Automatic annotation (TrEMBL):
InterPro entries: AAA+_ATPase (IPR003593), CHLI-like (IPR045006), Mg_chelat-rel (IPR004482), Mg_chelat-rel_C (IPR025158), Mg_chelatse_chII-like_cat_dom (IPR000523), P-loop_NTPase (IPR027417), Ribosomal_Su5_D2-typ_SF (IPR020568), Ribsml_uS5_D2-typ_fold_subgr (IPR014721). NCBIfam families: YifB family Mg chelatase-like AAA ATPase. CDD domains: AAA. Residues 190-374 form the AAA+ ATPase domain. SUPFAM superfamilies: P-loop containing nucleoside triphosphate hydrolases (SSF52540), Ribosomal protein S5 domain 2-like (SSF54211). This is Competence protein ComM. Belongs to the Mg-chelatase subunits D/I family. ComM subfamily. GO terms for molecular function: ATP binding.
Amino acid sequence: MQVQIIPGSVQFAVVGLPDKAVAESRERVRGALIASGLALPAKRITVNLAPADLPKEGSHYDLPIALGVMAAIGAIPADALGGYCVLGELALDGTITAVNGALPAAIAAGARGLGLICPAPCGPEAAWAGGDLDVLAPRSLIQLANHFKGSQVMARPEPAIAAAHGPLPDLRDIKGQEGAKRALEIAASGGHNLLMNGPPGAGKSMLAARLPSILPPLTPRELLDISMIQSVAGELRGGALSTRRPFREPHHSASMAALVGGGLGARPGEASLAHGGVLFLDELPEFTPQVLDSLRQPLETGEIMIARANHRVVYPARFQLVAAMNPCRCGQALEPGYACRRGPNARCMAQYGARISGPLLDRIDLRIEVPAVSAADLILPPPEEGSAEAAARVAAARRLQGERYAARGLSNATTNATCPATLIEEVARPDAEGAALIRSAAESLRLSARGFHRTLRLARTLADLDGEATVRRLHLAEALSYRGRAERPEAA
Ligand SMILES: Nc1ncnc2c1ncn2[C@@H]1O[C@H](COP(=O)(O)OP(=O)(O)OP(=O)(O)O)[C@@H](O)[C@H]1O
Ligand SMILES: [Mg+2]
């Protein structure tokens, strides 16, 4: 950015493809400077945002523009800003207000050997970028000017962690549903996608909400990755990072921009906000089919690309998909002895299920039926085992996966679900009996190539849960059972 002050008619101009918010920053900067006791010279001031052909969006250019002008008129030392990356919005009274994206800005600044000047509320977030990064988080223009003059030096902000809001819901609350709990544990162990199909009130939403309680804790690297996305989306409250895995549950009326991102400022969507955690789609067939299909790309690649006028934004989106649905619109089609209002059960189910595309379904390794809970189950005392026991088994299985993929030098595959296809053929090579089973199953179930690899991934997870080095017939049989079941019913 350049600031030039030359004799001429009184004028303050910002050039370099500013959008509306940036163009208006002229007014905020003028107001804030005057409120801080700095009169603008009665000359022609031009601010050039380089590169000139890249559109600039948002209000975070206020602070850099103001500081540039302050340096040009001598209110702060001319060389003070050289080593800093600056972002922040200004209020008319000269205070500096919070903006999104301070954490990624801090990390990028550190990588270039620069320091960061950001608004005070963003300081605790920026401080996470590393202990040796110089972070200045002033409350106002005056405070920053005093810091540079040496009259009142600011302290580095402290990194902050958000306090957890109470304990996570526990698996112990769920009576019966042993099969569904096992599927949830498998999904957590290998990072697999899960679809639950069952009548209303069976406990599907309840089960999904308990997945975070059995997932392993975040690694420091994951914590930073997840927090960067939250920072860009403006979801870090008070600049404090959360150590909980994301659990996002967008409503089924969500638009494509809400789900995969885009819109003003290329905001990350729910799929990116679920990175490293769970994306829960309750009432799956109620989502717009096109919106659902937009998830196919991130489900495969783990990232989302948003195309803008002349640049592209790529956000990570490696989430675990958990979905719940009723078998048909009336919800009861799978109940024994039930006759659908809308004609034969099979047709009602087919119509409802058809809203979910085959390719999307193909990406879901675990598809289970969750039957209604019986009265006998409901009056049972709470189950012996809760989330703690399941989480311990999940952690053990994850440790095996972590060691396996680290030994092969894979930095971004840490679970069986993210293992590349070529490698899974090697690490999940079944014994002779298992090989025979998958060969015949691939023919009879007409598995796609993706389906084949996904079955191997799931079988690998089942073997890891058993602590076994080789994938055996029994693991493959269980893995296949999750694929075959709840398959889309034949159209009647
Ligand atoms: N297995 C269970 N053990 C204890 N309570 C249960 C169980 N299943 C359901 N409930 C009770 O039923 C309520 C509804 O469950 P939930 O919302 O999870 O059902 P659902 O399967 O998601 O239904 P829908 O298809 O209508 O969304 C729960 O809040 C809980 O009180
Ligand atoms: Mg529900």
